[in-house]
């Protein structure tokens, strides 16, 4: 998988992509990430990328020319499965979206800034708009890191345990069951006996019930009435 990220602040990606699971995927050759500075595509001598919005109002807007130039430069070299724009008014990012995007060969992610991106670019070039939550960040870079991490960890071979991603929260519409590790007793607090029994069927049923109970308590919005 190849992911091209268009940003006004490319240096922000150095830390998140040089550690942990994403780093492992890059080292294994399972994924490639390329960061492109939108300012490099500006024809303005000061590399200006924003301007005042028509009709007045507070805040600047990302200009169409440099963003479109960056998009067309990349699309002239390869076809993208999705061109994603990170924006607070996009669809809220969910596990099912991560699953879908993880099957892509080429993705482009554009990081929004200021009061947003000229609407004409969104209408004619963007294929998917994503938000990571109902709040506003200073820019789309951190959101792009979240989406990239969620996608790359799903690529086969990235995780040491091939089944690990399949048992994550939200994969089956439920939160994950509680997990425990050694020692079996810590400060008088004991691991549930069923997990020590070695009985796979009972353990599976316990985990399933715990997932349902935890989801009922913490995220009832994820459940249908038939689940209660």
Key terms for this structure?
228 residues, 2 domains, five-stranded parallel beta sheet, 7 helices, two-stranded antiparallel ribbon, elongated, Alpha/beta knot, Trp Operon Repressor, Chain A, alpha/beta
Kindly describe this structure.
This protein is α/β, with parallel strands linked by helices and 228 residues long. It has 2 domains: 2-152, SPOUT methyltransferase, trefoil knot domain (Alpha/beta knot, 3-Layer(aba) Sandwich); 169-227, Trp Operon Repressor, Chain A (Orthogonal Bundle), CATH 1.10.1270.20. Helix content is 30%, strand content 19%. The protein is built from 7 helices and 9 strands. It has helices at 20-27, 64-75, 95-101, 119-124, 141-152, 193-196, 200-218; strands spanning 2-7, 32-37, 50-52, 60-62, 82-92, 106-111, 128-131, 185-186, 189-190. The protein has a 5-stranded parallel sheet, with helices on both faces. Strands 3-4 form a two-stranded antiparallel ribbon. The longest helix has 19 residues, at 200-218. The mean pLDDT is 93.
């Amino acid at each position: 998988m190849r992911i091209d990220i268009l940003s006004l602040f490319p240096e922000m990606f150095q830390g998140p992509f040089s550690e942990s699971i994403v780093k492992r995927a890059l080292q294994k050759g399972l994924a490639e990430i390329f960061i492109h500075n939108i300012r490099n595509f500006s024809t303005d001598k000061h590399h200006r990328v924003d301007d005042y919005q028509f009709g007045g109002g507070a805040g600047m807007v990302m200009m169409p020319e440099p963003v479109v130039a960056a998009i067309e430069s990349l699309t002239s070299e390869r076809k993208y499965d999705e061109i994603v724009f990170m924006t607070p008014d996009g669809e809220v990012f969910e596990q099912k979206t991560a699953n879908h995007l993880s099957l892509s060969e080429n993705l482009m992610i554009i990081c929004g800034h200021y009061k947003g991106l000229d609407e004409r670019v969104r209408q004619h070039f963007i294929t998917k708009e994503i938000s990571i939550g109902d709040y506003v960040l200073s820019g789309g870079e951190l959101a792009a890191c979240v989406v990239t991490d969620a996608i790359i960890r799903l690529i086969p071979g990235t995780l040491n345990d091939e089944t690990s991603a399949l048992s994550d929260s939200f994969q089956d519409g439920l939160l994950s069951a509680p997990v425990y590790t050694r020692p079996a007793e810590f400060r008088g607090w004991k691991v549930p006996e069923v997990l020590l029994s070695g009985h796979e069927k009972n353990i599976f049923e316990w985990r399933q019930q715990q997932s349902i109970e935890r989801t009922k308590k913490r995220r009832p919005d994820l459940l249908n009435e038939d689940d209660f």
